[in-house]
Design goal:
Blueprint (H helix, E strand, L loop, with lengths): L2 H12 L9 H27 L19 H5 L7 H7 L3 H20 L3 H19 L21 H14 L9 H6 L1 H5 L5
C-alpha cells in the first residue's frame, strides 16, 4: 500500500462529518447487499405466486388458486394480535397487499429506485410478520415451545434495519438507477420518493 493510500485511509478514519466515510468499496458492498435483499423479496413473491416447491408447493401457488397469507396467518398461535391475524388470514386485501409489497420492494431494491418507500413498506411488512411470529413468547397458547431463539432481534428486525440502511445510504446510486431516478423532476419535487 502506498503512503498516499495509507494517508487517505487515515484521513477517512478521522473524519467526523456524517457521510464522509462511505468509500467506493463500501458503496459496492451496499449495492451487493441491496441486490441480495431484493432477491429475497422477489424470491418470496415468485415462490408464493408460482409454487416453486420451496416454501410453497405448486398445488398451493397463488396462480393455482392457493392463498399466500392463509397458511401463515391462520397458524399464528401466540402473541397479542393472534385473533387479528386469524381474522385477516386469506382475505383478498391481505393477499394482494402482501404480494404487491413483496414484488414492489424486490423491484425497488434491484433497480435501486424508491428505496425510501421500499424501506418504509418493507419495515411495515417485517413488523407485522414479527408480531405474527411474536418471538417474545416462549410458549404457544397451547403450551408448546415456540422455538424462538432470540426474543428481540430476529431476522425480521435485521431485514428492516437493512432496508433502512440501504435507503439512508443512497445504495441505489451504485450499480442501480438511483442517480437517474433522483434527477427526475417529479422525484425532485417529491423527495420522499427517492
Amino acid at each position: 500500500m502506498s503512503t498516499t493510500n495509507i494517508h487517505r485511509a487515515h484521513q477517512l478514519e478521522q473524519v467526523e462529518a456524517p457521510g464522509s466515510m462511505l468509500t467506493k468499496t463500501a458503496a459496492k458492498a451496499l449495492a451487493v447487499l441491496r441486490y441480495a435483499t431484493g432477491f429475497v423479496f422477489l424470491w418470496a413473491f415468485a415462490d408464493k405466486l408460482l409454487g416453486l416447491g420451496y416454501s410453497t408447493p405448486s398445488a398451493k401457488a397463488w396462480i393455482n388458486g392457493g392463498n399466500p397469507t392463509k397458511g401463515f396467518l391462520a397458524s399464528v398461535d401466540t402473541g397479542p394480535l393472534q385473533t387479528f391475524f386469524h381474522t385477516i388470514a386469506g382475505t383478498w386485501y391481505a393477499n394482494w397487499g402482501f404480494m404487491l409489497g413483496l414484488l414492489g420492494i424486490g423491484l425497488a431494491l434491484t433497480a435501486g429506485i424508491g428505496l425510501r418507500i421500499a424501506a418504509a413498506s418493507g419495515t411495515l411488512i417485517m413488523a407485522m410478520m414479527w408480531l405474527a411470529e411474536y418471538p417474545l413468547a416462549q410458549h404457544t397458547t397451547k403450551g408448546a415451545p415456540t422455538g424462538s431463539t432470540n426474543p428481540l432481534t430476529d431476522y425480521h428486525i435485521i431485514y428492516a434495519a437493512v432496508l433502512i440502511v440501504l435507503a439512508a445510504a443512497y445504495a441505489g446510486h451504485t450499480w442501480g438507477l438511483g442517480r437517474l431516478w433522483a434527477k427526475l423532476p417529479f422525484i425532485q419535487r417529491n423527495r420522499w420518493l427517492i
